Amino acid sequence: MGRMPKKNSLTASRVLALLMAYLTLCVAGGVVSSVLLMPAVFGANKVAQAVAPSLKVEGIDFDVTSLPQKSTMYASDGTTKIAEFYEDNRIVVPIKEVSTYMQKAIVAREDRRFFDHSGVDVQGVARAFVNTYLLQKAQQGGSSLTQQYVKNVLLTQAEQSGDPIAQYHASEDTIARKLREMLIAVQMEKKYSKYEILQGYLNIAQFGSQRLYGVETAARRYFGVSAKDLNIVQSATIAAITKNPEHLDPSIEANQEESQNERNTVLMLMHDQGMITDEEYDEAVNTPLVDTLNIQPMTAGCANSGEYGFFCSYVTQKILNSEEFGKTAEERNSLLKEGGLTIVTTLDVDTSSLLMETARNTIPADDPSGFEIMMASVQPGTGEVLGFGINRTYTGYETDDQTETSMNYMVDAIDGGGSGYGIGSSIKPFNLVAWMQAGHSINENLQTTTSYPTYEFACDDYSGSSTMYTGGTDSWSVSNALTNGTVNPESPFLGLVRSHNTTMASMGAIIGLCRVADAYTAAGYHDAYSGETIDKSSVYAPAMMIGSINVSPLTMANMYATLAADGVECTPIAMKKVTRMNGEEIDVPKANCHQAIDSDIVQTVAYAMNQGTVRSDGAGVYAKLPSGRKTFAKTGTHEDLMVSTGGFIPKQIATFVLVGDAQAPGSNRIANIAINGVYNSYWDGGTIAAPAWRSFMDAWADRKGLGTDVGNDYGNPAAKYTATTGGVTNIKGQTVGGSTRSNSGATSNSGTGTTSTDDRNQSAQSDDADDESDDE
Q1: pLDDT value of position 132
Q2: What's the CA gap between 426 and 262, in Å, rounded?
Q3: Max Cα-Cα span within the chain
Q4: Residue 64 to residues 179, 272, 343, 457, 713: CA-CA distances in angstroms?
Q5: Boundaries of each Glycosyl transferase family domain copy (predicted)?
Q6: Structure confidence at residue 57 as a pLDDT band (50, 70, 90)
């Protein structure tokens, strides 16, 4: 066995040698240090100035405005806070915005000779050496406040760069790290004033758990005040935390006794250093910590946004998906969490509040049915998304609680939503757009049937150079709700008013699916999952004309907004203004508003929609606004899986409502079930979605001070699209027989100006339901 090494005793000469070596490394860093041998070394901080190395430290930015700061998201009013985002919860403030008591408290606690030394406190270093190496007490660093600032900056920059080696060197427990910090600290003192350094430290230091940094954030978190208003007791409490941020955080009840003890230590240091009077000390030290606290909730992320959580998630995804905020997703995420952005969104507080209230009143969150109600509103002509409504709470994480969800069902998959939903007949107004865009009148009498060969819907790109949809050898079976049959002949106008599937099918067979797809696209349609418009034959199917599509409620709200804006289509936008810390604005995604549909067509469609809510045979009677305001709406039923209603107040707001099982949209059927205590064997757009829509729209109009005459001048049909045409148009587009135009704008031929008993019953109960065979 080898011999154990002999323990060296600490002789006087060895102690002196160690001390000199330690001080030489710490202060001189290899520079000639004979001046350190002078007898007054322990009392002369001027020594540090005499031996300060003339080294330059490159690539280190000590500007406090470059520190990572939290970003804050606001509603459109610029004052209602939605959420905060951060890796480090920090708000940078200038030293003039920090109370004198707080400045004194941190100096008393961390570096009593801060205003005397030149970056390295020789006396502190010597004290640390004696305690650590001679008395073998707990290790002490003797770091000046300037050195601590340097250490924090180096560590922060290493973390920002994602460099694990730099992070290690910035935090390793070695004399080499101490030496580097001292050398940089001395350089710092040459470049910056004491108050600039103190400002930097107060903004970068950690003052609590959960990555809480900076004195301003600490003041707001623990006391609900700004740093400039901190009193003696509050200042001492915050200054004490730096010793152990995790275990001295006063917001944690288990920490409060020790936090008070450390606070009192700081108060004693302030008193002993002449910073506070005897009376101030006595009053402060005898004040219970718990009596001073006013803990404010942490607000990081959308999960803490309350009823704004779903909108917050939407905006966040828009930032992460938009190149305006960085070239990569990683850059965009860093900007959001560290860039100190001020994000003013398009969310309207009134709209959001009413949407959420309506959703929860319609179907309570804990309703045994388990169904979701999803609502979205858009401002016509601007693309601004005004808010979302849903009977769920946003969590930001997966949960088994049916009242909570991490998915925003109102938006596309890329924006944090699902793959889209079938919506039923609420798509039909856009079929009428396609019909008129193809040059047809809404009063043509169409031959209808319950079976259409799919090849009859064939179409090309109008140039004849390529075929877009050819159909096949199969047939599409389609019928109308309750009658299980057809009305033959019937005009497109009455087909929309009564919401008849067979007439929609006849229109598609005449003009082809390409024109239908073009009309949907012009209004703002795209697939919720793929993001594609209907511009590929692989997604063409005749059943799309009765709502067998994959679309989000927001997209549908935006399509109705196009009708509400006289044909002006805009891309939905979530942000009005985003500003950096220095006041520089960042470009935000644009709405790109443009005239997408001819005004005469839009006015004619609006007329037909309104007639569907006021005529006795109208399928949308349950959407009629009880205030007497002119109503423009269309209900829909997608088999017995999803029910909907979409509509608008011209120039003001467009809203879409969807009800069903959003988590299992293809299996949990909305039939033979009680919802909110009411049982129905057959639920449809008229029985639940329409009441929610009309309740919200009237409440919104009242909240915004709109009179009952709003929209009265909208929906004026254009003569060229309501003109009489001769005869009945068959599915080939050929005219057979004659017809006349009635004063109401409907055509009358063989009794087609009236509706059958079955259809009357249908309109009294609901709008149409799509035949189950139509949808896969």
Answers
A1: 55
A2: 66
A3: 123
A4: 23, 31, 21, 66, 58
A5: 81-270
A6: very low
| Closest to 418 (Cα-Cα) out of 430, 429, 410 | 410
Q: Which CATH superfamily is domain 12-54+86-292 in?
A: Biosynthetic peptidoglycan transglycosylase-like (1.10.3810.10)
Q: Give φ, ψ of 170 to 5 degrees.
A: -75, -15
Distances (CA, A) of 95 to 221, 326, 470, 526, 587: 19, 31, 73, 52, 31
Find, among 373, 408, 224, the residue nearest to 303 by Cα.
408
What's the rounded Cα separation, in Å, for the pair 286 and 279?
A: 11
Instruction: Classify the C-alpha dihedral 673-674-679-684 as positive or negative.
Output: negative
Alpha helices for 139-292 (secondary structure H): 145-161, 164-171, 175-191, 194-204, 215-223, 232-241, 256-272, 278-285, 289-292
Contact indicator for 81, 307 with CB cutoff of 8 Å: no
Residue 237 has which token pair?
């409490």
208-226, pLDDT tens digit by residue?
987 899 999 999 999 999 9
The H-assigned helical ranges of 565-709 are 599-614, 690-703
Confirm if 657 and 714 have CB atoms less than 8 A apart.
Answer: no
Distance CA 84, CA 66 (A): 18
φ/ψ (deg, to 5) at 389: -130, 140
Alpha-carbon span 565 to 379, nearest angstrom: 9
CA-closest candidate to residue 514, choices 555, 462, 474: 462
The distance from CA 286 to its chain's CA centroid, rounded to whole angstroms, is: 46
If one counts every other C-beta atom within 10 angstroms of the C-beta of residue 443, the result is 22
670 and 658 in contact (C-beta within 8 Å)?
no
Structure tokens at 647: 């509509």
Residue with tokens 């910035």: 170
Strand partners, 375: 389, 657
pLDDT at 24 over 60: no
The token duo for 529 is 């999952």
Residue 398 has pLDDT above 70, yes or no: yes
- Token representation of residue 229: 């208003």
The pair of structure tokens assigned to 551 is: 């679309």
At residue 231, φ and ψ (nearest 5 deg) are -95, -170
Q: Are 197 and 149 in contact (CB under 8 A)?
A: yes
Instruction: Please report where in the chains the tokens 């990572």 appear, as a residue.
Output: 68
Distance CA(689)–CA(635), nearest Å, equals 8
Domain residue extents for the chain: 12-54+86-292
Are the C-beta atoms of 421 and 469 separated by less than 8 Å?
Answer: no
Compare 171 and 479 and report the one with higher pLDDT: 479
Provide φ and ψ at 437, rounded to 5°.
Answer: -60, -25
User: 12: buried, middle or exposed (CB in 10 Å: 19+, 13-18, 0-12)?
Assistant: exposed
Asked whether 722 and 500 are in contact (CB, 8 A), the reply is no
* Phi, psi angle pair for 82, to nearest 5°: -95, -45
Contacts for 709 with CB less than 8 Å, ≥ 6 apart: 629
Expressed in percent and rounded to 5, the helix, strand and coil fractions of the chain are 45, 15, 45
Paired sense of beta strands 642-649 and 585-586, if any? unpaired
Judge whether residue 494 has pLDDT over 80: yes
Residue 654, H or E segment: strand 653-660
Q: What sections of 464-512 are H helices per DSSP?
A: 492-497, 501-511
Using a CB cutoff of 8 Å and minimum separation of 24, what contacts does 749-755 make?
749/445, 749/489, 750/489, 752/445, 752/487, 752/489, 752/490, 752/491, 752/494, 753/494, 754/617, 755/487, 755/498, 755/617
Long-range CB contact pairs, 508-511, < 8 A, 24+: 508/431, 508/457, 508/542, 508/545, 509/452, 509/456, 509/457, 509/542, 509/731, 510/438, 510/440, 510/446, 510/729, 510/731, 510/732, 510/733, 511/434, 511/435, 511/438, 511/440, 511/459, 511/733
State mean pLDDT over 456-472.
71
pTM: 0.78
pLDDT tens readout for residues 606-635 = 999 999 999 999 999 999 999 999 999 999
